Amino acid sequence: MTTTKSAGAEKRRHPRFPLAITMNIPLGGETGETRRATICDLSMSGMSLTSDAVLEEGMLLHLKLNLPLEIRGEVRHAKSGPGGLHRYGIHFHNIKEGMTERKA
């Protein structure tokens, strides 16, 4: 018997796990402005988040959590939603855990 994937099935290297963690996104510039965001799901190579911040595909982010964890990633997907919220797909470039760094 052969199994087939539906046309809309996602093809990911790593499984994503649902979360609901809020964080600040630095928008750069001289003002040091940040916006709140909520991480919706997380995997070893990426995450999705929602925010009222306007981010562009290809934009590089340097995210710091209230954990010994820093993430450098790139906005790969952007989708506008209701109430001025946007949903973004972020692909990780580097994850720094405490004193170690690894490529995603």
Please give a quick description of this structure.
With 104 residues, this protein is mainly beta. It contains no helices and 7 strands. It has strands spanning 17-26, 34-42, 46-51, 60-64, 69-80, 86-97, 100-103.
Give structural notes.
This protein has strands at 17-26, 34-42, 46-51, 60-64, 69-80, 86-97, 100-103. The chain has 104 residues and is an all-beta fold. It has a single domain (17-103), classed as predicted glycosyltransferase like domains (Thrombin, subunit H), CATH 2.40.10.220. Strands 1, 2, 3, 4, 5, 6 and 7 form a seven-stranded antiparallel sheet that branches. Strand 1 (17-26) and strand 2 form a beta hairpin. The termini are far apart. 13% of the residues are buried. Residues 1-8 have low confidence and may be disordered.
Helix share of residues?
Answer: under 10%
Shape: globular
Uncertain segments of ≥5 residues (pLDDT<50)? Answer: 1-8
CATH class label: Mainly Beta
Q: Largest sheet, described in full?
A: 7 strands, antiparallel
Q: What's the N-to-C terminus distance?
A: 35 Å
Taking all Cα atoms into account, the compactness measure Rg is 15 Å
Give the number of helices.
0
